[in-house]
Amino acid sequence: MPLHVKRLCLVFKIYKGVRMKRMFPKLTASLAVCSMLASASFAADVIKIGVQAPITGQYANEGQSIDNGVRLIVEQQNAKGGVLGKKIEVVTCDDQGAAQQAAICAKKLVNEGVKAVIGSYTSGATEAAQTTYFRAGVLQTSDGTSDSLIVHKYWTFFRNSFPNSAEAEYTAKYFVDGKQYKKIVVLSDYSSYSTDLADATVKALKAKNANIIYEGKIKSGTQNFTATLTKIKSMNPDVIYFSGYYTDGGLLRAQQMQLGIKADFVGGDSNDNPDYMKLAGDSAKGTLLINVPTPGILPYDIAKTFLVDYKAKFNMAPASIWSLMNVDGLRAILHVMEQSKSDDTKVIAEGLHALKDFPGITGPVTFREDGERIGGGYMTYEVQADKSYKIVYQ
Question: What is the structure's pLDDT at 286?
Answer without folding.
Answer: 98
